[in-house]
Amino acid sequence: MSSTVEMKPEQEKNALNIIKKWFLNSPTHGIRRISIATSIFERVFWSLTFVVFTTLMCIFIYTVIVKYIAHPTKINLSVRQHRDTKNFPAITFCNLNPLRSEKFIDDDLYDQRTPPNSNQFYTDDDYKNRFIQYMGRLVAKNLENKQPTIIPSGYKLDDLLVQCTFNGRTCHRNLTSFFHPNYGNCYTFNNDYHVEAIQRNDTYHFWSIDDENTVESYKLFLELYLHQNEYIQYLDDRAAFRIFIHRKDDIPILSQNSFFLAPTTFTKLIFSQRIISFSQQCRNDLTPGMKQIFNSHDIRYSQALCFKLCELRYIRKICQCTDQSLMVYFQFFSQNNTKTRISRIPCSTNEECLENRATFNSRQHCPDCLPECEIIQYKVQSSFAAYPNTRSIEKVLQRVDKHFKAMGQSLVQSNTSACSNNRKVSLLDNIVAVEVSASPVATEILAESPMYTWVDVISSIGGQTGLWIGVSLISFVEIAELLFLLLCHCMEKIYQSISIRWKHFCQRYISKKISSRF
């Protein structure tokens, strides 16, 4: 009787009984149907069905996990109607012909120690080569000055800018300047620093006729003068200003938005903004080297600038000199980053080593140059009108003449080819006007965000398991309970086995001791 009583608990603790009991109470319908099947055919049918559905579930779960690991993103579009003058872009303008002809010839002859009558060098390609070499020397000299400066042989701000007004307020004549070997002296307008705080009564509203609310109209007007008579004829047959519309604290020569402003033309540029924010694979935190360059200056990090600096280091490494077209970027940063002696040695225009720059791969050689996490794009629409019109020529001429007299020279002196009877023709050949304003179209904000988060992954896995085999999160807890019971059963078996062996060992040891005494 006692043996039968001992057998029942032993059977209840059997591993197969534990599993069978769990199968009979399983929340998964397929497993429960297999357990309660009354025939072989029914059991095989439900077993195959469960295996097929489980396989499909695993395939879909694997797909979800792979997509999550790939970090796909989605774009959320929103619009912002409010316009703030703080978001007005920076405007940079340069004369298309970068140098004054006579000053360039005089300076170049002096640098080359060439006699004044050596005019045979100034023809076509020879002239252009000497111009490139001259610009390279200017860049090197500019770096020695420890700060960005303009070059004397180029155009000063007062030579180019006749009038500047922003929202009815006059601009300070202290625009930010920099020198570039392709553009000469360039000047940047930033409404945060270069606008008077108080509106003057004598400020003329050039946009008062075709636009309303002129004081808060978010507009910049520039009246510029070309000085075509001082152009270098071998450089370019065109006469215009080049204007860049770019984000504040960005280097303008890297901007994609640049336009030509032709003489005798009023150019109206209307921009709309698009702000793109990235959440992944962007440069959110600067490297230690980048912090040394960017954090101590007002220049904003950008991938394009990072590529330029990386290319500069690449050429300097393989050629032991610096390409002058890239050397110009030094002037925007601390001299602590340009103190290396070799960095100031410009490469010759016929340097054979420069041919190796074709092997430069920005993606390969500059892995740290990730895109910036926020990009502002400016979409610009342009329209044109004759400027000035027939009846306003005298008024504009008086304003320009007054400006040059304030500089200590007359309009006739600034245009030696024009006689006093032909001042109007001279004006029309050189006057340029541009208005930059914001579009009434709302600002587009494109924000990138992850398509799958860990919450989405868990929800997708739960949806797949519930769809195919009817398992929820509590079911996984029950599966964990089954594993725990089986583990306890195994530990109990191991403990019983060790106890029995130890008991037999002790019995044999005692029996040997007793037998040895007798």
From TrEMBL:
Cited Gene3D superfamilies: Acid-sensing ion channels like domains (2.60.470.10), YojJ-like (1.10.287.770)
Any Gene Ontology CC annotation: plasma membrane
Compartments reported by the entry: Membrane
Membrane topology value: Multi-pass membrane protein
GO MF term set: ligand-gated sodium channel activity
Transmembrane region(s): 44-70, 467-488
Keywords annotated in UniProt: Ion channel, Ion transport, Membrane, Sodium, Sodium channel, Sodium transport, Transmembrane, Transmembrane helix, Transport
Keyword Hydrolase attached: no
Major localisation: membrane
Family per similarity comment: Belongs to the amiloride-sensitive sodium channel (TC 1.A.6) family.
Listed name of the protein: Uncharacterized protein
Species per Swiss-Prot/TrEMBL record: Rotaria socialis
Native organism taxonomy: Eukaryota, Metazoa, Spiralia, Gnathifera, Rotifera
